[in-house]
């Protein structure tokens, strides 16, 4: 809790001087998010039973995984996913070597990922529950990757620019590289570039591109 309190103080000091990004106040973007979330949750309801059977057969345990993340202007929220790792994955994270550079964690062939979990990640089906986060307004269909408090506590001031927009299920770097991008500074640069180029039309183009990238299963592990 002390860590979260210190984060809130940092956010307040930084974002008090920043104007709201237009994507945050766009009613059209929010309408697209709501419609997309409703459709997405409908798809989730259809595929959840067969996916749940596969997951329980492969690795018994909770179907869902949740984690505290930092959203717009550092607002803490609970993100939801289908569980793709073993139950005690967080407790044994220190045993896995981080192959990314900077304030982000990535590992090719992470041994904590279950067999079904690898399928879920390649197809991005593990992210379907995030449509609920979008419906609640904590996330958007398109935005930036929502970081963990442990990552943000180590941010330098220019990294906080990522938090000027809502986190998204997809975004600039997900549509243009996904997990193949391992340098955090590159991700930050792409996220800030997204903010500069933002428009409703650009969001729609990234959604279409993400669907194509997921369909090809490129850049995911």
What report would you give on this structure?
With 221 residues, the protein is mainly alpha-helical. It has one domain. Helices cover 48% and strands 10% of the residues. The chain has nine helices and four strands, in the order αααββααβαβααα. The strands form two sheets. The protein has a two-stranded antiparallel sheet with strand order 1-2. Helix 3 packs antiparallel against helix 5. The longest helix is centred in the N-terminal third of the chain and has 32 residues. The protein is globular and about 50 Å long. The two termini are 32 Å apart. The model has no long low-confidence stretch (mean pLDDT 87).
List the helices and strands and how they pair.
Elements: H1 2-15, H2 22-25, H3 27-58, E1 64-70, E2 76-82, H4 115-123, H5 130-136, E3 140-143, H6 149-152, E4 168-171, H7 172-175, H8 184-197, H9 200-216
Parallel strand pairs: 3-4
Antiparallel strand pairs: 1-2
Helix pairs in contact: 3-5
SSE run? HHHEEHHEHEHHH
Average pLDDT value?
87
List how many beta strands DSSP finds: 4
- Count of helical segments? 9
Q: Tell me the count of domains.
A: 1
Q: What is the SS-derived class?
A: mainly alpha
Shape: globular
Main β sheet profile = 2 strands, antiparallel
Side-by-side strand order of the widest sheet: 1-2
- Integer-rounded radius of gyration: 17 Å
Low-confidence stretches: none
Portion of residues in beta strands equals 5-15%
């Amino acid at each position: 809790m002390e860590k979260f309190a210190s984060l809130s103080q940092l956010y307040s000091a930084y974002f008090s001087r920043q104007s709201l990004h237009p994507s945050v106040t766009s009613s059209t973007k929010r309408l697209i998010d709501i419609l997309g979330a409703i459709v997405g949750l409908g798809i989730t309801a259809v595929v959840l039973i067969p996916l749940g059977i596969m997951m329980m057969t492969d690795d018994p345990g909770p179907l869902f995984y949740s984690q505290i993340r930092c959203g717009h202007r550092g607002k803490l929220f609970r993100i939801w996913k289908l569980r793709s790792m073993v139950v005690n994955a967080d407790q044994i994270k220190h045993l896995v070597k981080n192959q990314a550079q900077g304030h982000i964690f990535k590992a090719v062939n992470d041994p904590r990922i279950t067999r079904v979990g690898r399928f879920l990640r390649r197809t991005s089906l593990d992210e379907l529950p995030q449509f609920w986060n979008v419906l609640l307004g904590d996330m958007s269909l398109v935005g930036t990757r929502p970081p963990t408090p442990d990552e943000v506590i180590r941010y330098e001031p220019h990294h906080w620019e990522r938090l000027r927009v809502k986190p998204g299920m997809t975004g600039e770097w997900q549509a243009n590289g996904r997990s193949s991008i391992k340098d955090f500074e590159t991700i930050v640069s792409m996220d800030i570039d997204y903010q500069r180029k933002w428009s409703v039309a650009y969001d729609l183009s990234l959604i279409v591109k993400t669907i194509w990238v997921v369909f090809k299963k490129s850049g995911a592990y």
